[in-house]
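Researcher: Quick test of sequence recovery. Tokens follow.
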């Protein structure tokens, strides 16, 4: 089997030109792997970029998943890497490693990378996409991936229908991951594939709590058999009440939860019970 071709999609709002150039440079400096680079501008002007970079200029901010979908349509690689504009690849061997992983396993649909602190701090446990996190330096089969630190086989991306653009932000990766698995592909967390990203908290995003809750409901309504929808969402209501003590945050979360039931989540295509069992076997049953 011939080695797959690689593309890298970077999404930016134009607010971090220096960081964007650093991210692009880390892709262009990959050894023994010619990686096509596509930069998607989400409703903003782009700074001057290195020669040979393909650009997609969107007239408005369409959100993270829709922006990345535009990037995939503009690129040609058999495998697509997604990279945050404020992240960068630590090793010039990463692209070669990714290419070899996908070439060796035709059933591999997506790889989730390990995110390391550039300042030498410990790996953040929330970036490890498994229920029992354990050692972040241990690879494993998983049921989701990190949107800005991953690589996806194009055929798996297309089989899963792409990222759900209507989500705008939050849980879009899990929506696609479940559909990728339902199409017969596997997903792995690869601790040897490392990207650098500054330590930040997700609550920095505007409307984090509302979109987090709304999209959680949409995720269940779109993808789970009805018998699993109530236990899945009930579990997350309980976890939110146990974890969150800020009343303003809780009010925003429950506003989003109601929106998730009132608004159209998009096409419903529930995963099979076989896929639900696969998820359970790798430690993440689709009720949490």
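Model:
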């Amino acid at each position: 089997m011939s080695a797959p071709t690689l593309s890298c999609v970077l999404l930016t709002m134009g607010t971090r030109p220096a960081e964007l150039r650093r991210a692009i440079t880390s892709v262009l400096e990959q050894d023994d792997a010619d990686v096509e680079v596509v930069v998607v501008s989400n409703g903003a002007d782009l700074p001057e970029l290195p020669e040979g970079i393909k650009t997609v200029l969107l007239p408005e901010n369409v959100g993270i998943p829709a922006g990345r979908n535009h990037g995939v349509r503009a690129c040609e690689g058999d495998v697509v890497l997604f990279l945050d504009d404020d992240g960068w690849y630590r090793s010039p061997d990463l692209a070669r490693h990714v290419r070899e992983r996908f070439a060796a396993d035709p059933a591999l649909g997506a790889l989730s990378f390990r995110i390391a602190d550039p300042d030498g701090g410990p790996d953040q446990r929330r970036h490890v996409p498994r229920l029992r996190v354990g050692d972040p330096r241990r690879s494993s089969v998983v049921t989701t991936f990190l949107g800005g630190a991953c690589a996806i086989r194009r055929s798996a991306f297309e089989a899963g229908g792409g990222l759900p653009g209507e989500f705008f932000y939050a849980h879009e990766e899990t929506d696609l991951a479940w559909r990728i698995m339902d199409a017969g592909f596997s997903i792995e967390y690869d601790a040897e594939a490392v990207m650098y990203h500054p330590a930040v908290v997700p609550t920095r995003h505007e409307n984090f709590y509302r979109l987090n809750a709304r999209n959680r409901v949409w995720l269940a309504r779109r993808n789970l058999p009805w018998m699993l929808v109530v236990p899945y969402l009930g579990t997350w209501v309980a976890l939110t009440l146990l974890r969150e003590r800020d009343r303003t945050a809780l009010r925003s979360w429950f506003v989003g939860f109601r929106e998730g039931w009132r608004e159209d989540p998009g096409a419903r295509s529930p995963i099979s019970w076989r896929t639900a069992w696969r998820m359970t076997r790798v430690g993440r049953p689709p009720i949490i």
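Strands lie at 6-12, 35-42, 54-58, 79-84, 88-89, 108-116, 140-142, 149-153, 186-196.
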